[in-house]
Amino acid sequence: MAGSAAGPRRRRLPPPGTPEADLDTPALVVDLDAFERNLDRMSEAAGKAGVALRPHAKTHKSIAVARLQIERGAAGVCVQTVWEAEVMAAGGIRDIFLTNEVVGAGKLERAARLAREVTLAVCVDDPGNLDELGRAARRAGAVVRVMVEMNNADYRAGAPPGEPLLRLAVQANDTPSVDFLGLQAYNGAGQHISGYPARLASYRRLAALVEENIDMLARRGVHCRVVSGAGTGTYELEAASGVFNEIQPGSYVFMDAGYLANRDRSGAPFRDFEVSLYVLTTVMSRSAGAVLVDAGLKAVSLGNGPPLVRGARALYTLHTRLADEHGVLMPDNGGDLPPLGEQVRLIPVNCDPTVNLYDHLIGLRNGRVETVWTVDARGY
Question: Does the reported pTM lie above 0.90?
């Protein structure tokens, strides 16, 4: 009986060999062939450029996926929260960069304790916070690596370039129980500049600013062992820069409609990586000019707009007015609507918050379930 003393029943996971058509929807599915090609392409690109690859685990929040990335040569992973760092460490990931500031006594204590178990780096952009981090590390008997984050855009974290960044780096270099590692310079604003010339110009402004600040630090005897940044939209630029020696793309493993909107240097659609992540949904009702599917706000993030929709027969438009449990599909160019019971695949505009809605990723190969991965760090 549901809701008994033993607790509510959990959703039954599909066993290996289950056909895609038999999956309970909505489901978050991964095309394993495309996923593995994405892993290999990014690993190869980093290797050719001679930079470290540290993919961002906030995209998948999965220990299993992180292990696959490390097996293909990643130096470790990035995370965005202390919780994600704790989950990855519990799963055996030993080199973690928390690409965010850690503020508050509780989080600082947790991060310091974690630094006794794994190699942990965190970002700082405030002198007082840096002092608190050092004290927490000393109490825990740990050493925490520190990356000074450089601000490079409005409404983003980071110490201002120039003298404020220099003072903070000198302080980090002199703080007991803190190991100053280098600079975090992620060009978040540049990742989704769709036109290549404008995206290139954004990267060049950042690279020049980073190089200028590295040189300034070196003149004061503060040396950056690591200069980290880049995302899926600009990974190739930072990798070839000679300024960055570590890249931290995340979405490349899955891709999403946001990155598909970018253009490459020839003006063609950005296709360095393939879409491997979909929300699988089923047509549950039909009406004049539209159909309803069983995926709504609880199944796909609308943070940056509605997903693309691919069905067996055509490309459809997903209406922006999603309900909690269903979405509305309308045909593009007057095409036919899918019949009742047909499955369609949604391509999220932003894969990260969509993954965070699910407990599991279902890996498919040749139309059948091969594996199921837990979204271990879901929720925080």
Answer: yes
DSSP 20: G
Whether the ω angle into residue 26 lies within 30 degrees of 0, i.e. cis, is yes
Q: How far is CA 230 from the centre of its chain?
A: 12
Helix (H, G, I), strand (E, B) or coil at 65: helix
Would you list the domain boundaries of the chain? Answer: 20-29+272-374, 32-256
Q: Can you state the percent helix, strand and coil of the chain, rounding each to 5? A: 30, 25, 45
Q: What is the pLDDT of residues 221-265, one digit of tens each?
A: 999 999 999 999 999 999 999 999 999 999 999 999 999 999 999
User: What is d(CA 255, CA 274) in angstroms, rounded to the nearest whole number?
Assistant: 6
CATH topology of domain 32-256: TIM Barrel (3.20.20)
30 and 363 in contact (C-beta within 8 Å)? Answer: yes
* 20-29+272-374 CATH fold: Lyase, Ornithine Decarboxylase; Chain A, domain 1 (2.40.37)
Listing DSSP states for 149-168 in one string gives EBP-STT--SBPTTHHHHHH
